[in-house]
Each structure stands twice: as C-alpha cells, then as structure tokens.
Amino acid sequence: MNKIENDKEENTNPLREMFSTFFKSYSAVTGFLILILITVMGFLGPLIYPTDPFDMVWMPFSPPGNDGFLLGTDYLGRDMLAQIINGARVSIAIGFSAALVSCFIGVGMGSFAGFYGGWIEEILMRITEFFQVLPTLLFAMVIVALFGSSVLSITLAIGAVSWAGVARITRAEFLRIKELDFVLASRASGSSNLSLIFLVILPNAAAPIIVQSALLVGAAITFEAGLAFLGLSDPNVVSWGQVIGSNRTYILDATYTVTFPGIAIFITVLAISLVGDGLNDALNPKLRSR
Amino acid sequence: MTLLYSFIRRIFSMALVLLVVVILNFLMLHLAPGDIADTIAQTMGGADEQDMAQLRKEYGLDQPFFIQLFKYILRIAVLDFGHSHFYNLPVYDLIMERFPATLLLVFSAQILSLFVGISLGVFAAQNPNGLSSLFVNMFSLFGYAAPVFWTGLLLLIAFSLHIPIFPVSGMRDITIENGNFFTHFFDVLRHLFLPMITLASIFFAYYSRLCRASMLEVLGADYVRTAKAKGLPKREVLYKHALKNSLSPVITFAGLSFSAVVSGAILVETVYAWPGLGTLAFNSIISRDTPVLLGILIFSTLMVTVGNLLTDLVLRYIDPRIKI
C-alpha cells in the first residue's frame, strides 16, 4: 500500500521526480557535494585558515609539507594553501555570475528570435552567428585590457562573449514549442506575446537551457582562469589562473606551484560537468531510463 | 554556377563579419576611458591643455564620431592597423611576421584532433560498451575540465624538463645555421609537437565522442545492413558506407569550434613561447599596446572565418546535399 502511494506521488510531482533521478546518480551527487565543498571552502575557508594569501610568510619555494606549509610557498614566499582557498571564491563567483549574464543574453536573443521569426529572427541569429565566429578569448582580452581588470568587468566580458550556444538552443526549443497546441490555446485565451514568451513557452523550454547553463559555468571558470593566466585578473583578489600564470616561469624550481592551482580548477570544473550530466539525465525525459 | 554564387555570397558575409569587428573595435576604443592623446601625454610625462588639444587635433580626435569611424574603417581597408607604441613598428608588419606560426599551430592541431578523434570514434563505435568507449568518455571529461594552459605546463614539465625529448620553447633552434630544408622542417616539427598535442587535447575528445555517437546511429541504418548482407568486407562497410555518412556532424562541429581553437592557441602559444599571434597578444597586454591587440583580433577573426569556409567546402564534398 505504502509503495503504491509512493509511486503515485513520484509520478505526479515532476520536480520531486527530477530530484530523485538526480540524487540517484552517484556521479551527479559526487559532483554536487564537491561543488558545495569548494564553495564553502571559498567563502568560509578564510575564517578557518586566516593566513592572508598576499602575505609573504616564509622563504620562497618551500616545498609542500615543509615548515608547516601544507602546499608550500610560491616564488614570493606566499602560502599556496591560502591562495588556493581564497582563489575558490573568485572562480565560483565569476563562474556563476558570468554564466548568469550569458544565460540572460542568450535566452533573450534566442526566445525573441524563435518566437517572432521573420526579420527579427534573421537579425538576432546573424548577431549570434557573429559571436560564434569571434575568437572569444581575444575579444574578452580586448574588453578587459581596455576597460580595466576588475571582477565586474571580467564577469561582464566573459558573459558577453559566451552566450551564442544558449541562444541557439533557446531558439530551437522555441521553434518547436510555439507550434504546440497549448501555446495556441493560451494565445486564444488572450495572452500577450510577452506572457506567451516568458510564462508559457520559456518554462517548457527550460530543461535544455538549464543543462547548457550548467556547462557554461564550467566554461566560464576555465575562461576566467585563462584570462588570469595571461595577467588579466583583478589584482586585488587571488585567482587560481593568476597563481599559475605568475609562477609559471619558476616551474624548474617548483613544479607544485602550477600543479596545485591547476588541480583545483580541474576538480571544480569536473564537478560542474558531473552535475551537468546529472541534470541532463534528470531533466531530459527521453534519455531517462525507467 | 550555384557553387560560384554561394562562394561569392560567403566571401561577402565574411567581409561583413570583419567590418562588424572593425566597428566594434572602434566602439570599444571610443568608449574606453582615456584616448591616444592621454597615452602619449603619459609617456611624455605630462602635457598642458594646449598640447592635449593639439595632439587630439593631430590624431583627428576632435572630429565627429561618424567621421572618425569612417576614417578608421578606411585605414583598416588599406591594411593600416596603426603603429605599435611598444615595438615602434607598424602593427601590420608585426602581425604578418607572426601570423604564419599561429596558422601552422591552429591548422595542424585542428587536423590532428580531427584525425585522432575520428579514428578513436570509429574504434569505439564498434564496441559501444567496451573499454575504448570508456576511454573516449573519460578523455572528453578531461578535455572539458582541464584548462589548456595547465595541460600545456604539465606536458612541458613531463616531456621537456623531466624527460627532455622536446624543446622547452620557441619554434626554431637557432644553433642550426646552415641546414637544408629537411633539417629545418624536422626542427620546426619537433618544436611544434608539444603545442600541437596540447591544443588538440581539448578537441579530439569532443570529436571522438561525436563521431562515436553518429557512427552508432549510422551503423544501425538499413543500408549498412544491406552492405553487410551483400557480403562486403567489414573494412569497406565501415569506412566507405558508415564513416562517410557519419562524418558531417563531426565536421560541422569542427567548423563551429574554430574560434575556440584560436582562443586556445593564444594560451598554448603563451605557455610554449611559440612565436605567433598569441605571444604577441600576451606581450601587448603587458605593455598596454592596444593597436596591436585590436589588429590581432581582426586577423584571428579572419582566420576563423576562413577556417569556417574551408570546413563548409569539406562538408559539401562529403555530403553533396548540403548547400553552403
């Protein structure tokens, strides 16, 4: 009796069903936990391990484990562990907010293009194609080099160049959904175009957009790391890419100074991609195995 | 005739893309805080109002926005990209000197990753749940998660420092003075190897994953079964019937990734000090050499559009139904 009730409940509540599918997948849960751990490390870590990442605390190139520095010190004698803990905050913050920015632009462009069609679609899709052709890293480099390297300008630069994929997916979903009967019904009952776009079609197109956005977070984190590696990072905050970039001339003396921050980026992005795969399975009913 | 027509249309749209990049360049220069007069005044150690006005007049900064824009476009059209403050050379010469190196890196990496990716994909598709498929999946996760400059540094540490097989940096060994063509060729090849592998490592996993999926789909098609039933050898079925029909999504994706390859090349070049546009861009960031950076943006966009055109031609060759 109990089991039947459970089944019934699972089938009637899509959100719960989604969560249960997501949390049944080991890799997705692992990725999710790692991501939470890294976020907590970035935001609360400095309270537990209060060493200032910019302080020169010991002699340079002290190997990991020596002299009480778990991950050693870098070329200026700064604590690597403190740099990695503090770097998490920037990576996570920029990764998520840049993905949010590009999601916003991409969904806007894609939904209007898909819904209205005609010349609006032509123009918006031309712009999207343009951003697909543009070498994104170089364009972001130019923006950051010209407008200064603050966390805000880096976030906006990354967000402004990486929305093309979201726009294409959103448009494709809109093209498919706008022909369906419930949209027609909603239109017949007097919905305005804007409410059709944002209240009727968009919620039904959300699944692939969410999956794509999850992947965007990972891409934005590597993107930020790349910019920081090239020296285009906010000088007031520590970032993993910047730690690698400034230590890379000394890899002969201290390999670990580039290995550890790289591992941090790798694990973070890997966790996000595992979460993305899990979301894909949970949200995409066609692929879901029953 | 239709081919010629669509070719001309493509060239036209390429020109349009470049025009938009040039306009964007100008807009960014215009919107960014400070102008060239400020930069010059800074390097001169200060200037009074009169000098500043004189400078602005000399560089045409006192003219209306659209006239400035028009003049900027005209200058770019005759390949005048301005002057590098840092190198004291025309930007065009600087870029032309380094363009071939980037071109070599980008295209060799793209071809290598396509080749490896497709072979791996075909191999994995024959055994969809086997070890090779697992390998493909693992590698595509790695390609997505590992930042390319980090992969480069790790390869550098492994194969140039600990096991010194490959040179640490550069493109040529300057100690080779009078070699023939082949010594130089192999020298460049030896230098190219690590950067090429690094850049290809991001993409070949994607290509192999795509190729595996599309091969699996094609292998289930009726005409493949017919080909098998006819008694054709397995090799022929696999490469002549299945592969040719499963290539087009892979090639399409390769065309779309061209801009990502160019972006990756900038990072890889910086790691290996490969004398291309990437290292030039890196240096011009450090020395705040904006004209060079803008010139590189235009040239790499040109490279991406040409790459896209080439992939479209290949696509058309593979699948004549596709119109470019």
What is the N-to-C order of secondary-structure elements of chain B (H for helix, E for strand)? HHHHHHHHHHHHH
Largest interface: A-B, 41 and 48 residues
Overall strand count of chain A:
0
The main sheet of chain A comes to: none
Strand content of chain B: under 5%
- Pick out the low-confidence regions of chain B: none
The rounded Rg of chain A comes to 23 Å
**Nearest-integer average pLDDT of chain A:** 82
Helical/strand content category of chain B: mainly alpha
What's this, in brief?
The complex is a heterodimer of chains A (290) and B (324). Chain A is 74% helix and 0% strand. Chain A is an all-alpha fold.
What is the strand and helix layout of this fold?
The complex is a heterodimer of chains A (290) and B (324).
Chain A: H1 2-12, H2 14-24, H3 26-48, H4 80-116, H5 118-133, H6 136-147, H7 151-161, H8 164-177, H9 181-188, H10 193-229, H11 240-247, H12 256-283
Chain B: H1 2-31, H2 36-44, H3 49-58, H4 65-77, H5 91-125, H6 131-145, H7 148-162, H8 181-219, H9 222-229, H10 234-256, H11 258-272, H12 277-286, H13 290-318
Helix pairs in contact in B: 1-4, 1-13, 5-6, 5-8, 5-10, 5-11, 5-13, 6-8, 7-8, 7-11, 8-10, 8-11, 9-10, 10-13, 11-12, 12-13
Question: Could you explain how this protein is built, in words?
Answer:
Chain A has 290 residues and is mostly helical. Chain A is built from 12 helices and no strands. In chain A, helix 2 packs across helix 12 and helix 8 (164-177) runs antiparallel to helix 10. The longest helix of chain A has 37 residues, at 80-116. Chain A is elongated, with a radius of gyration of 23 Å. In chain B, helix 1 runs antiparallel to helix 13 (290-318), helix 5 (91-125) packs across helix 8 (181-219) and helix 7 packs across helix 8. The mean pLDDT of chain B is 81. Chain B has helices spanning 2-31, 36-44, 49-58, 65-77, 91-125, 131-145, 148-162, 181-219, 222-229, 234-256, 258-272, 277-286, 290-318. Chain B contains 13 helices and no strands. Chain B has 324 residues and is mainly α. The A-B interface holds A 130, 132-139, 141-143, 145-148, 215, 218, 222, 225-226, 229-232, 241, 244-245, 248, 251-252, 255, 258-259, 262, 265-267, 269-270, 273 and B 17, 20-21, 25, 28-29, 31-33, 141, 144-150, 153-154, 156-157, 161, 256, 258-260, 262-264, 266-267, 270-271, 281-282, 285-286, 288, 290, 293-294, 296-297, 300-301, 304-305, 308.
